Structures are given as C-alpha cells and as structure tokens.
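User: For this week's homework, look closely at the record that follows, marking any run of repeated tokens, and judge whether sequence predicts the tokens.
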Amino acid sequence: MRAVCRAYLDFATERPALYQAMFVLPTDVKFASAETPPPLRAAFGEFVSCFRPDDERRELFAEVTWSALHGMAVLSDSGRIPRTARRSGSISSSLRSSAARPAPSWRQ
C-alpha cells in the first residue's frame, strides 16, 4: 500500500503538467464503466490489489484511497498542504491497518 501511495504522489510531484492533464482538466473519459480504457482499469487495479481479495469492500477502499491521494496531490500542488506532510505516510499507514483488519461483526 505504501509503495502504491508513494508512487502516485511522486508521479503528481515529478510530472505536475501530466498529472493535471490526466486528473484535473476536464475529460470525456468514462471512469468506473465498461468504457474505461484498459490502462486506466489496470492502474486502478493496483489500488484494488492493496486490499484483501476476500473483502467485498476492496473497490470502495481503493476509491477512497485514490480520492485521498488525489486530494493530497492537488492541495500540495496549490500549497495548501506542505509537501512534508504528504510524505509522512500517515494516510497509507492508516489505510493499511484498516485493510488488514477484518470487518467488525456488526457490519457482516
């Protein structure tokens, strides 16, 4: 999980114009549908693979992980989040511990 999160944030930092073009500027690309291009599905699959295969919520966790990282990347780029806070690994550590725990009995 940490390596995937770090790679995403490093990409956003090292290639800001490309990141903006891919994830910030308007696009006609359909996400989370049968029309999603295979490379985008494969990239999202990297996030999904960070979570236990037997957890039916793994795609939800992957979406939340991506959205948190996207928010961090955009806010870091605008200067609202210091880059040092982004690199602390706190989000990936929190999500990793959640991914490793079984669902609470009241949720099953």
Q: What stands out?
A: The mean pLDDT is 82. The radius of gyration is 15 Å. DSSP finds six helices and no strands in the chain. The CA atoms of residues 8 and 69 lie 7 Å apart.
